[in-house]
Amino acid sequence: MVNTFFKALISSPLIAIMILIVMANVNNNYQPQVKLDDGRIVNGDLIKGIRGLKNALNADEDLEMQRMYPEGYMFLNVIYSLACCNLLEGDKSAEIVKEGLTEIQKAWQKISDSRGRAPFSEELSPPFGSFYKGWSTYLLGRKLNLEAEHQRDEKEVAQFRYQCEEISKAIQEKVYPVSYYGGAWPADVLVSVASLSLHDKIFETKYNQTIHGWLDKVKTIRCQWADSACRTAIRW
């Protein structure tokens, strides 16, 4: 009887309207927890969220994610470290920068070691596929972009440049290089192309022509698909 009562209550149009009103008020009136610290404005809610992810990773939740998804280990570490990158771009306080760079370095080491690469095949083009190559290269580029030139690890700079070359070669051979055997996702390739753009932001301009050439091919494919869909609709 209790379940029936709650079902009837939730299905009531008045209750549904009230829920929508409450949600609208929350969205309109919510303000992140912000505090002033030495003249700075700090988004406390954002820092709490990032540190929550930090605690989860310290508790090996990335390994649990890997048991659930084939790319779970890598993706959780990538999302966490990119969130740290976003935070550091807006908050330059010494404490936050030190903690953030340490966490980004830890995540990068986990992504770039054998465990991070394990679910992906080196025989693909680019090696380890577009998902791994795109996200790992983009994260490394974001990391280098945060660091002063004299702080950058020469091996990481060389690795970033080499991975960009691998991406450039792959997208010139095929518009959507595979992420796994038999599977290609445009979103993964888009991150790869963003890595090339990031290279040209940090270092010399090198991939502008490659990027524009890839975009032209994507537009051509999109137009061909739209034309085919239109002709199919006309037949129907």
Radius of gyration: 23 Å
Mean pLDDT: 83
**Pattern of helices and strands:** HHEEHHHHHHHHH
Q: Provide a count of the helices.
A: 11
Q: Tell me the strand percentage band.
A: under 5%
Shape: globular
Helix content: over 70%
Strand order of the largest sheet: 1-2
**Poorly predicted parts:** 229-236
Could you tell me how far the N terminus lies from the C terminus, measured between alpha carbons in angstroms?
50 Å
Total strand count, please? 2
The largest sheet, given as strand count, sense and whether it forms a barrel, is: 2 strands, antiparallel
Structural class: mainly alpha
Topology at a glance:
Layout: H1 2-11, H2 13-29, E1 34-37, E2 40-43, H3 44-58, H4 61-68, H5 72-90, H6 94-112, H7 114-117, H8 129-146, H9 154-173, H10 186-202, H11 208-235
Question: Could you describe the 3D structure shown?
Answer:
The chain is mainly alpha-helical and 236 residues long. The chain has helices spanning 2-11, 13-29, 44-58, 61-68, 72-90, 94-112, 114-117, 129-146, 154-173, 186-202, 208-235, and strands spanning 34-37, 40-43. Helix 5 (72-90) runs antiparallel to helix 6, helix 8 (129-146) runs antiparallel to helix 9 and helix 8 runs parallel beside helix 10. The chain is globular and about 50 Å long.
